[in-house]
Amino acid sequence: MCLDLLKELIDIKMAQCERVVNDVLDTVDFIAPDERVMFRTCSKEKDRVVFQMGTADPDRALAVAQLVENDVAAIDVNMGCPKEYSTKGGMGSALLSDPEKIETILTTLVRGVSKPVTCKIRILPTLEETVSLVKRIEKTGVAAIAVHGRMKDERQRHPVHCDYIQAVAENVSIPVIANGGSQDHVKTYQDIEKFREASGASSVMLARAAMWNPSIFRSQGALPVDEAIEEYIKYAVRYDNNTFNTKYCVCQMLKDRVESPMGKQLHAAQTNAEICEVFGMTDFYKKAQADLESRKKDLQQSSSSDLFDQPVLDGDVITMAVKFERREYPPQITPKMYLLEWSRKEKMEQPVYETEQRVQDRAFQSTVLVANKKYRSTLWEKSKKFAEQAAAIVCLRTLGLPEGRIGEENSGLVNKRKREQRSRDVSQDSGITDSTNRKRRSTEPSQKEEQESNDKITVVNGSCGQTVP
């Protein structure tokens, strides 16, 4: 399930994502730094879903493929998308004019991942050029190739060139997947086989026909569109789909009815709850949300007795598998601030952080030195700041110290911050500057001090490291 408004998943976005197991939804989520879910999948589709990405860089493509390969059935590179958001970055159909880059990207992927690698292209201006490119692609070791039977400047109103797809299939030994038949060829399940035969392909890929009615793949025949919409919305709600993605997909199924009163209501909807209201599914939505909340509580109760992992000594470093979740801490409070305050009270040197950056996915891992002992989380973070916070958490938990999480409101630093905020509010209301408070605050760790750490990051790739300023 792509949650970014149905645009293809672009490698540069996915490379920044973190893989998160979502126990509530029973899914695996790939989450961007801004907390958006870019890709969500589940064990039921692990052996079926093919992860398609837009890319123009072999190394970045490999990093993304390695990030998702254990959760998908295959990796596909989209070399046929003619949309500007894809081509302006050298991706999609822009790659068709650079066969060498195509070869490099696919060869890198085939050698670097354990799952089958495929690609999708559009046909070139001549049959000879098309066959030549496909033969070159075949030599990279891809498992199959999808051919959209239109040139990159052609659109749905232009007829699909089945003869080009057939010629490709006759000239290569790998499976050829026919694409582009939704507009003219595929209206029913039986039409899928007719399109396959007309193009001489081994199988068929559908996009628009599947968006118009996802049940077109039912051998018994497609469901009525309204029934398909209802079934789709149920999946969207159960798996907490992005509202705008849900709305887009339903609009595709409504087609000409998108300007009807129902369609206008759908356009105005801003949440999945409001979408359910449009289609008379409010009761279903409430029950689905109640089920999710119940599952959350069950998971919290089952994990409450084993909230934190136990520290493990790895060489001279004490490690734990923890991550920093900003939402679990009050505003203006972080584990680093707690650790800094504790160090000062104990009259010890300020904690020292060293951070490594992993090349393949740009993730970070920090080690903090406190009282001549090193602490580190075994989990990599999406930013240097988060990695340092995770290291501080390991230290605090190992020492049995509070870290400022919500629920630890009785801890000293939280109470100080609350008193400071109340004092600032009073001062602002009265127009008086409280110099006493300002003096007292100067002896406590500020956000700026808390953020200060070593000005070096070690960039790592495998076992090698290079220190850069």
From TrEMBL:
Region (Disordered): 406-469
GO cellular component terms given for this protein: cytoplasm
Extent of Polar residues compositional bias: 460-469
Needed cofactors: FMN
InterPro entries according to UniProt: Aldolase_TIM, dsRBD_dom, DUS-like_FMN-bd, DUS2_DSRM, tRNA-DUS-like, tRNA_hU_synthase_CS
Keyword terms, alphabetized: Flavoprotein, FMN, Oxidoreductase, RNA-binding, tRNA processing
GO molecular function, one term: flavin adenine dinucleotide binding
Pfam families according to UniProt: dsrm, Dus
Domain annotation DRBM: ranges: 334-401
Origin: domain of life: Eukaryota
Feature: compositional bias, Basic and acidic residues: 442-455
Name of protein: Dihydrouridine synthase 2
Organism: Astyanax mexicanus
